[in-house]
Amino acid sequence: MAATWLITIKELRTQLRRGTVLILGFVAPLTLAFIMNLVFGGLNDPDAPVTFDVGVVDHDGGEMADGFVATLHDITASGLVDLTTYDDEPAARDAVDAGDIGALWVIPEGFSTAVSSGRDTSLTVVGDVDSPTTASVARSIADRYATGVGTSTLAALVAVDTGVAEPSEIGEVADEVAGAAPIARLDRIESDTSVLDPTTSLTAGMAIFFVYFTAGIPLLSILEERTGGTLARLLAAPIPAASIRAGKTIASILLGTVSLACLMVASSVLMGADWGPPLPALLLALAAVIAATGVMSVAGSAARSAEQAGNVQSIVAIVLGILGGSFVPIPGGNTGVLGTLQKLTPNGWFLDGLGALQNGDTSEAARTIVVLLAIGVAAGAVGLQLSRTALRR
Amino acid sequence: MRGGDDAEPHARVAWPTAPASGPCRGGAPIDPVLEVDGISKRFGELQAVDSVTFRVAPGETYGLLGPNGAGKSTCISMIAALLTPDAGTIRVLGQEMTTSSTAGRAQIGLVPQEVAVYPDLTARENLRFFGRLYDITGGALNTRVDQILDVIGLTERADDRSSEFSGGMNRRLNIGIGLLHQPQLLILDEPTVGVDPQSRNAILDSVEQLSAEGMAVLYTTHYMEEAERLCDRIGIIDAGKLKAEGTRRELTTSVGERDRVQVGVSGSLEPALDAVRHLDGVTSASTTDDGITLITDDAGPILARVLDAITGAGGSVTTVEVSQPDLEAVFLHLTGKALRD
Description:
Chain A is mostly helical. Chain A has 16 helices and 4 strands. A 4-stranded mixed sheet of chain A has the order 2-1-3-4, sandwiched between helices. In chain A, helix 3 (63-77) links the parallel strand 1 (52-58) and strand 2. In chain A, helix 8 runs antiparallel to helix 13 (306-323), helix 9 (217-228) runs antiparallel to helix 13 and helix 12 (278-298) packs parallel to helix 16. Chain B is an alpha/beta fold. In chain B, 32% of the residues lie in helices and 27% in strands. Chain B has a 6-stranded mixed sheet with strand order 8-9-10-5-11-12, sandwiched between helices. A 4-stranded antiparallel sheet of chain B has the order 4-3-6-7, with helices on one face. In chain B, strands 14-15-13-16 form a 4-stranded antiparallel sheet, with helices on one face. In chain B, strand 6 and strand 7 (95-96) form a beta hairpin. In chain B, helix 4 runs parallel beside helix 5 (197-212) and helix 8 crosses helix 9. The longest helix of chain B is centred in the middle third of the chain and has 16 residues, at 197-212. The A-B interface holds A 2-3, 6, 10, 13-14, 17-18, 227-230, 232-241, 392 and B 77, 80-84, 99, 102-103, 105-106, 108, 110, 112-118, 120-121, 125, 129-130, 132-135, 161, 177.
């Protein structure tokens, strides 16, 4: 054990003197998070209202069309959408192209008559490719309206079939059914997982990404010592070979955890990031560092030189960063293929854990910590086996 | 020059390879510091080391001489327990060396071929770190570190990082670390490669001194002159096999190489030639333009008698030149190639 600590202290001293660890563990993530925060400045204020700029063109002017526009005005009143009414469809489409609005509804001529008589018709949604969320919201409103209209029309047709109403009264009955409840409304936008505010998300994403570089130090250090000859000296000393790996791993975990803790404090003070309660956040950081260290003990373990291993580790860190949502949030949250892939990365778990902490969900945060530790232990066991070969290669 | 000459400042042991015949000094058996018995190592298709056997006694400097790639460093790696032999055993002071046992390793001081120091640590920090790995602590560590700094001439630069040192200074620190825990066996793996002549001489002087103090030294080199200067016995290794071993004299004799003595003589050469031709130890003698050339197994013991005989035969000696066969010739004879091929 004494040898392990000696090697840990030596490793900390040499790494700190080199300065690289300070750059990778603190300066680079903080600087990048700060820059990204500036770039995505609009997302800075977590209390800023989210609004979707949309437009509508009504070629019909009938009752059903008026009902749809009235529904849109109701939604506008909630503050979630900013509605512009256009008389001229080309002008409205130009506004979409120019990015002035993110989506446009086009109500065709004869829409009301078609709906009232139970004939097929369509409500066109034009979306801006650069505003996928707004376009998605617009489509959702249109779908819900169409479903509502369909239900009303179906009710009217049933009424006619059963003799409750005359065929000439279909439109009237449908209007009555439609008027019973809002045909469309925009629910509060929620995610099925806890989502971090943008500032914390960016800082945490950068922090966990750069943790991989400190986590890669044990393997790189062993390969450097092998090249330099000091590894032979360590292996020839009367100490267990495992203490060499253990000492370097402990140093790496300490450096990574201190680096994350410093980033948490600095980003809270400088950028207003919210990491949740300090102690659980620190435990989550430690678990994330252990997971990253485990993963990095495998990545590059077959390399013959520190340079080769460093290249492999960089690629792994970037891939995990992309899949784990370190750089940009994963579309669709935790659902779909990307959501599943995100759950295979320590990055994804770390960000989810922070989201849980931010929302006060301590049991979810604890589960995340357990998962991260399990990743670290499992990957570390594989890395340990591989490192035995690397030590004596 | 050492190389197995009899008149040495400390005891020399002509060490037999066969364990059964056992080493003796003054009639008493001496336990070897290092016993290497039939070690082999293969890397894929390459048989790096093939059944190598030798021993090193206390106070003896044993040289492994061979070209690059001969298997010297692989032997060293196995002896220092960095590699596990495919076959054979290695014992240091009776302790079997394995990669999992630590007992024998404490007795070894390893000086790798590379400058194996931490460039981001000072000389003192390097020494203290390795000293503590060998369980030297407290005041004893401080004292020992100061001693080593003094021995390697780095006291003034003790608190400078080794990245600021010259190549020679780092080489000295490299050796100093190997000596720190006062090992019974010092292993030097080509310690003078890439070293300037001044530092090289300093290193060779240090090795001679350590050997004189009773430390067993295993020294690998592909420099013939270093082996001749430092080593009591030499093992010639090539393609993983120990081709021959012994003192320099034994090696040169074993391959039929002889000393050549050229004596410049003024006066009549024929009586002088007759006088020396029949002396014991003279293998052959012939005249040259200005003197006599003798071939002998060992020039040292007979030189005085040769000069007396020439003078007694009426000749006057003007010059004497003794040429001893070198290890280059031995290596060429044993392997069919030059040492630096």
